[in-house]
Amino acid sequence: xxxxxxxxxxxxxxxxxxxxxxxxxxxxxxxxxxxxxxxxxxxxxxxxxxxxxxxxxxxxxxxxxxxxxxxxxxxxxxxxxxxxxxxxxxxxxxxxxxxxxxxxxxxxxxxxxxxxxxxxxxxxxxxxxxxxxxxxxxxxxxxxxxxxxxxxxxxxxxxxxxxxxxxxxxxxxxxxxxxxxxxxxxxxxxxxxxxxxxxxxxxxxxxxxxxxxxxxxxxxxxxxxxxxxxxxxxxxxxxxxxxxxxxxxxxxxxxxxxxxxxxxxxxxxxxxxxxxxxxxxxxxxxxxxxxxxxxxxxxxxxxxxxxxxxxxxxxxxxxxxxxxxxxxxxxxxxxxxxxxxxxxxxxxxxxxxxxxxxxxxxxxxxxxxxxxxxxxxxxxxxxxxxxxxxxxxxxxxxxxxxxxxxxxxxxxxxxxxxxxxxxxxxxxxxxx
Amino acid sequence: xxxxxxxxxxxxxxxxxxxxxxxxxxxxxxxxxxxxxxxxxxxxxxxxxxxxxxxxxxxxxxxxxxxxxxxxxxxxxxxxxxxxxxxxxxxxxxxxxxxxxxxxxxxxxxxxxxxxxxxxxxxxxxxxxxxxxxxxxxxxxxxxxxxxxxxxxxxxxxxxxxxxxxxxxxxxxxxxxxxxxxxxxxxxxxxxxxxxxxxxxxxxxxxxxxxxxxxxxxxxxxxxxxxxxxxxxxxxxxxxxxxxxxxxxxxxxxxxxxxxxxxxxxxxxxxxxxxxxxxxxxxxxxxxxxxxxxxxxxxxxxxxxxxxxxxxxxxxxxxxxxxxxxxxxxxxxxxxxxxxxxxxxxxxxxxxxxxxxxxxxxxxxxxxxxxxxxxxxxxxxxxxxxxxxxxxxxxxxxxxxxxxxxxxxxxxxxxxxxxxxxxxxxxxxxxx
Lengths: 432, 432
Hints:
The structure is a homodimer of 432-residue chains.
Chain A: H1 16-35, H2 39-55, H3 57-73, H4 78-84, H5 88-103, E1 111-116, E2 122-129, E3 132-137, H6 142-153, E4 157-161, H7 167-183, E5 191-193, H8 200-206, E6 215-219, H9 222-231, E7 244-248, H10 254-266, E8 275-281, H11 285-298, E9 302-305, H12 307-312, E10 317-318, E11 332-338, H13 341-351, E12 356-360, H14 364-373, E13 378-383, E14 401-402, E15 410-411, E16 418-429
Parallel strand pairs in A: 3-4, 3-6, 4-5, 7-8, 7-12, 8-11, 9-10, 9-11, 12-13
Antiparallel strand pairs in A: 1-2, 2-16, 14-15
């Protein structure tokens, strides 16, 4: 059985450790080949992958139906089933997404900086692939296509480990990706899917497969990320939760604040860039607080608040200490009145997750202070936190949003999936 | 007792865990302040630190004498004692090094990229400090000054843990750094020295001090680095050993090859950029091999070789399989004949440490192939591997050379000690 295929159920006869080790070795070999693949080869593979996804749409949807049926029978929540479910539109969006990645500039080989030394040495800092990326994700089957395509574009091999519930869907998508790789004569093992639901496979990946995984990207909920961060023996692109804030400053235009706050919370409540807390400057509490809360309630949002927020509008339930650090991922928001920008920044520093935070203000100095001092991956002035997205940043696509500060921070697109090296050219120089 | 002071010996009454936790909290607080320190403040502190080192040269040398006496009495090797020993010249070099760091451009706040989106959002990618850097080093006391100053310049707080043998020397240097911080009214806790020789302190640092260390930089030998990589629960700037190669291509000028090979090995044998293996293209073995080996021998180098190398010159001892992956850090080199550039690249990939590798050739195409395909932090054409150094790269100073591919690779200078954030400026945009 080839590694590209998917074994539908656990098989006691299979040594998962040995199987995972072999996947690691194959990935490293593929990475060596990919590091020297031309842009043309990689883009040809991506376009062939998109075509194969379209050609196999029916097969993918059938596999997905089987996953959805089992998951529904097991009594999963509606939101979970929605994330799992594919439609013809969603399959087309996957294919189009891969084609968009083909259109992106190839980061590999880009000269990031170049300079000459007094001794005549010429130094270039050049982007290179990282090597092998391990991606551990949950129910969304489209991650298979997005992550595989992004890794390939950056010249990296990928080892994908999807959720058990989307196992057949991911497998069918993966088979299409492999068709694309083969059509472009790139190694089929450039994108491998872990062929077992056995959770031990995740443990092996977190151990680094004997040095054959360079970085792990977890995509999923808190418990997955926590396990990855606790157990990984290789670097991880950390993604903590998105406890995002909108601070409504004393110089905020009320209409703009209302629009931004409602969008930041309610456009989609389940994404990591959704706002979870609104902070309002006490100076404008009289004028702004009630209209902001009313606008949220009118949009269908439950509001929890401190005493001042509760006093301003009926129907606000009390916020507890825990609310300030809670990522609701739902139509719920907490509202707090603060004494000004300093207290707002302190609150965000204390309770936030360094993901995405916004200020609404007409005061440029206040905005600059907020953007400089809030220590988050993304800080916005007069814009919704829901813009925290690689596509919205113009990166074409993202594999996730990193909240750590090492290597990648914010949206992780093709550039963030690269490393670099120094190329030094001389004419016989030796060091004195 | 202030954390800036040094407790000369282990004290059973001290709870090292609690003490280390307090150091972590103080470092995080200092890092918040440093993140917003101006370039002027940071440079004033650096210049005051340099002045304090000069003013306290006598104290530093006395502390160092005590360290050296104890270490010599314990029977340490001469090379070890040399690394430990300070002289007035070395103290002056430390002070001058800090002043050079003051002269470097401040990386913090630099706009790395900026672009506009069709919806009018303006996005800046801006350098920020990382936060708190933990540095674990061994006998060289000057690392105290270099590492502390580099971290400060990049707006980071530093927690330094030096070797037991240099404990008093590092403490005296650290006291001077604190004087400089205080003179510039920056927090004394911006650069802290672990005030105990107790090895448990290292374990606490590797655990991350409750999230208060963002990255660990190990500076030392293989066993230190191995412990750090095995135990660290936070990101590490990996520094594997430097198994560096010089490949003498068929199109190599013999005189240039001799000069580069001898310099790469013999200029200083104890640094990580020293060459450990010479690979010679069989096509020019008849003309090049014997003169290269003779030149190495004439420079005082022991040569180990494969059969062809041994046949070319008397006095070459046999190289075993283990030699190809050995970092001698001494006047010893291994020599191997290869069938051409492909075999050279394969050898480097198999036995090397992805640190620094050079090709000597007059053939541009071969050079480009080598520079692209050898997967090392630094790849050189017609230049000595001993140029693997932040100072030689024009970075002013370095905290070490990273052989990993995440975040930093190659010399780690002030830029590599930064992270970044995205500042997004709008005019009320919400996401459709």
